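Checklist before submission:
- one chain only
- standard amino acids only
- sequence pasted in full

Submission:
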Amino acid sequence: MIKTHAAIGAKMLSELPIEQQELPLVKVASEICRWHHERYDGTGYPDKLVGDEIPISAQVVSLADVYDALISERCYKKAYTYSEALTTILEGQCGTFNPILIQCLLEIADTIKTELRDISLAQEDKYIRSMRNKIDYDRLLTRKRCSSLSRLQSYGEV
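Returned file contents:
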């Protein structure tokens, strides 16, 4: 199942109405869905595309996806440090990527490192909790019920 998700996602988008399929955003989304696990040397899946046969949108997401997977903690592994993740990618341990994209990654490496240092997971969690606490769900739900009731009363349906 894990290696079929790319094709399944692309198929889902191909089943949209034709006028939606033609939208540029949907075309790019479809490329990303189908080919984000392809590798520049042809060892990826689902179609074993090689080099520039892989749309650049999928190549960029593929590299970002690998980087994110490396620096993120999972139930089966600890998060890599920024330097470990970069080294792992540069050594080709996660597959082969477009050399131009690798060069771009190296050019922004210091920026990524700085941004990661500035935004920790704990800060993100704190921010999310803070935003949730600011939303008064009871008031929102009550207001919606009251608004619906008022509309019904004005139409004489209650």
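Reviewer check: The chain has two domains: 2-118, 120-158.
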